[in-house]
Amino acid sequence: MTMLPLLLYTIAGVAYAFSFARRSQRTGRLATASLAGAALIHTFVIGMRTVEVGQLPFVGTAAAISAFVWLLAVAYLYTEVTTDERAMGVFIVPLLVVLEGVSALSDRVIEPAPVLDSPWFAVHVSSLLFAYAAFALACVIGITYVLLFRELKSKRLGFFAARLPSLQVLDAMNGRAVSVGWLFLTAGLAVGAVWLFQLQPETMDPRVRAMSLFDPKISVVVLSWLVYSFEIYARRAIGWSGKRAAWLSAVGFSIILLNLVPVGYFLTDSHNF
């Protein structure tokens, strides 16, 4: 059952690629239906895990990545339905496939440590995952902006100009996604600080005592907050929109991917419950 979402995400990715290349409405509808099916099955998997462990399955890097994939799929489907625009799917769904594959390779149920039995923990992780999903959308939108910008600049309109929204629409979508992501990221960091403040006097768990700005998992996410804060400031105060904002979105999400996979699996002493 746990491999079924990965299979459906893969089918959806192939369908989005065909739809994008051939501009086929029929294949596009199949792609959307496949992605919706994948997200639905993924919801059941997360629900079963929740019942099994007795709380939201956020414990462990693999579970967090899988939850992020689900959130990104749902966020993209919402965006597609509200904008009636499928072009982004060819860029987003392959990311879902890769990350869900990484999660599936180390997929196992981890019993949550007692220290994690707190609503603060659930809000902290949920907020960060919502933020990461918004930043993933912003990154993909930014990449498509750059691709379209380069094609328009060359004055040889063709592949991307015929398939992507206008530069103005892409830039506006990027700005909204970054703003939403920044709000959730800020909330997640604030709630995490409150949760840690409450735990320290009460626990001897060495992983909790290892939580500090010097832990890579925490320092990298703070770095990503600084990057996105600068992007919002630069957009509003000094007019860094368009291509500059697109590149900042790509840099910020690269930092988040670094935090999700190599740092989460190999480099943290605190976030390895």
Sheet-strand content, in percent, reads under 5%
The tally of structural domains comes to 2
How would you sum up the major sheet?
none
For the secondary structure, the number of strands is 0
The overall pLDDT average reads 83
Estimate percent helicity. Answer: over 70%
Report the structural category: mainly alpha
Gross morphology is globular
Specify the number of helices: 9
Order of helices and strands: HHHHHHHHH
Explain this structure.
76% of the residues lie in helices and 0% in strands. With 273 residues, the chain is mainly alpha-helical. The chain folds into two domains: 1-112; 115-273, no CATH class. Helix 5 (119-153) runs antiparallel to helix 6. The longest helix has 35 residues, at 119-153. It is globular, with a radius of gyration of 19 Å. The relative contact order is 0.11.
Topology (SSEs and partners):
Blueprint: H1 4-22, H2 25-53, H3 61-83, H4 89-105, H5 119-153, H6 167-199, H7 206-209, H8 216-237, H9 242-267
Helix pairs in contact: 1-2, 1-4, 2-3, 3-4, 3-5, 3-9, 5-6, 5-9, 6-8, 6-9, 8-9
Question: What's a quick, concise take on this entry?
Answer:
The chain is mainly alpha-helical. It is 76% helix and 0% strand.
